[in-house]
Amino acid sequence: MLDTDAWWRDAVIYQVYPRSFAxxxxxxxGDLPGITGRLQHLQELGIDAVWLSPFYPSPQHDAGYDVADxxxxxxxxxxxxxxxxxxxxxxGRGIKVxxxxxxxxxxxxxxxxxxxxxxxxxxxxxxRYIFRSSGEEPPNSWKSVFGGSAWERLxxxxxxxxxxxxxxxxxxxxxxxxxxxxxxxxxxxxxxxVDGFRVDVAHGLVKEANLTDxxxxxxxxxxxxxxxxxxPMWDQEGVHEIYQxxxxxxxxxxxxxxxxxxxxxxxxSRLARYVxxxxxxxxxxxxxxxxxWRPAELRAVIDETLEANDAVGATTTWVLSNHDVVRHASxxxxxVGTPRMPGIGAEDPQPDAALGLRRARAATLLMLGLPGSAxxxxxxxxxxxxxxxxxxxxxxxxxxxxxxxxxxxxxxxxVPLPWExxxxxxxxxxxxxxxxxxxxxxxxxxxxxxxGVPGSTWELYRTALSLRREHGLGRxxxxxxxxxxxxxxxxxxxxxxFGSEAVELPSGARxxxxxxxxxxxxxxxxxxxxxxxx
Length: 534
Ligand code: NOJ
Prior knowledge:
Blueprint: E1 12-16, H1 18-21, H2 32-37, H3 39-45, E2 49-52, H4 80-92, E3 96-101, H5 111-119, E4 131-132, E5 151-153, E6 159-161, H6 176-191, E7 196-199, H7 239-250, E8 258-261, H8 268-271, E9 282-283, H9 286-290, H10 295-311, E10 317-319, H11 328-331, H12 353-368, E11 373-377, H13 398-402, H14 447-450, H15 457-470, E12 479-480, E13 485-489, E14 492-497, E15 510-514, E16 528-533
Parallel strand pairs: 1-2, 1-11, 2-3, 3-7, 7-8, 8-9, 10-11
Antiparallel strand pairs: 4-6, 5-6, 12-13, 13-14, 14-16, 15-16
Bound molecules: 1-deoxynojirimycin.
């Protein structure tokens, strides 16, 4: 393997949520040509790769995580040729492309599920999914992650399992046909030139054989009990041989193609089993995303994940935001220790926006100072907050629906991006259409208000990404320092002030970048991260 093939070990990977990135045709829904048209900005930002959330044909009951055809492009987003153009244009700009793969479930509109419905109980078509006949009562007590039972009954009496929405039937990974199909889907996209796959619900594919009752609500969005056995629907031993078989396919292709696991698995040593040398390359570090803004917890999660990944020779990843969680610019504006919320509505307690942004900038600079690979979520480079006051009638998230509106859902972090302060839809598209409403205050976050403006969040990200590369921080290590929350990574000191008093830069250290201006005496204020050359 060439060293450049291990590009992912220190890569900064930017998540594009196609619905909300850029709309080329003015229908209010982002699309692939829109992304291609804005790649220049991502190049200027200085990222290494993009990960595209699903753009495949889909009825969009779960924003595309309900795939009806794994080998196409939904007409809302363009056509296959647009995907090819996007990949080629990104590569031309030195940006790798990772696509999303959703193997735990298909859409109920997928040809296989339609065939299963038509063929009836006991048919081989139903063997591709998890059908059971158990009379009036569901086969077991499992709950859907989005709320309610995980089982749906058909008029013919059979029940089928759906760990997510009722329109997302779980596939049966004991069926060789399912396995063969996904190997082929991998090849389909690898042949088109993609550099890897983000694997949705990677810990869920294999279910415990007896489908044993599980009484607590099954959720990927909450912590699993690290001490107990894994729940019967998550993190079963059988998932690993699937990823080993995928890895063998990826390794046939040149240039370092990668698999990244979306696996809500704890503790870190258990998660690290997904990134053993013959399995995936990376796994999202959700414990880091979940850690409160407190030095002891952050240090513990950093140490624990570095140690667990080192033990298997894998790189550690870091992440603060994505399309499923409250944006960190808002999350960090709540009192420290508030659990990560599935969403916020206008009637809920509101975050302190200024504090949230200040801490978000400090958190990002801390994250980008860590060795390994970092994931950014579109809009965080603009300092975007969660849309916390979105009127309920606009919400589309099935988690909002299925929870009986008990949970606010994830729409607040999915609002289309503001590119130009004075344009319709803030330049998201050529018209004022936008599939989710953009807050009236978003002009100030628009890219064109931040470019070239010293101290803007956009310029902070650009500076940090460029220094990160220059100083090789992604390939470095963490050496904790005495005193403040600080570590040395190569020749750079990364220091975050969690205290209530300003602190001095160590003598002889030369400031490289700071998440906020230093105070009048050149000291580091509260909730500020600095990088300094030693
Ligand atoms: C995780 C995805 O990130 C989320 O958006 C989706 O709803 C579930 N998996 C189900 O596919």
